[in-house]
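Encode chain A's predicted structure.
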Amino acid sequence: MTLTPFDRFLSTVDDALRTVFSSPPASQPCPTLPAEPTELSATEKKEAGALMRVNHVGEVCAQALYTAQAFTTDSETLRAHFLAARAEETDHLAWTAQRVKELGGHTSLLNPLWYAGAFGIGLVAGKMGDAVSLGFVVETENQVEAHLETHMNRLPVGDHASRAIVAQMMDDEARHAYNAMELGAMDLPASVKGVMKAVARVMTTVAHRV
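Encoded structure for chain A:
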């Protein structure tokens, strides 16, 4: 079925509301290491919860970015690609939200703001053309993968549950970047990449606390 622009607009609004104000279910089981029980101290739980909250914010932003890019592209092929990637990111969103709750923490109180900002960035990238939009995906996913790697080093060694989630997320993000390159992504200027890193640094610092 072919959707009209207004249909896509309504779907975009619905996706935003579901991401920010509800808990979208995962389509795949949460990664676990059943043979490795997780036993954490109160301090370790607090830090792990903060790190997984940051990861959850990243997934909120991923939902916004892919939704905006799917909305702006005129290519049905790319739209399908963006929506498929977003569906996998929905699994990450659900897994991280579940893990934050298990650790006794809470998701970011600023999620509506994070979503709105990321959606705006996605709209701008999409309006600049598909090659730029895909290039933005590549750089975003590369930065997210590097960020997740630092979290693997910061998570408590005994937090096998969180580490299993982050490991799966790293694999998925690397694949999303590779797929975007295969579809014709352009390499973004170093200045743009620098700004993206600076914005991400602000987001992760704030989300770690709020």
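The helical segments are 5-21, 42-72, 76-102, 111-127, 130-154, 160-182, 190-207.
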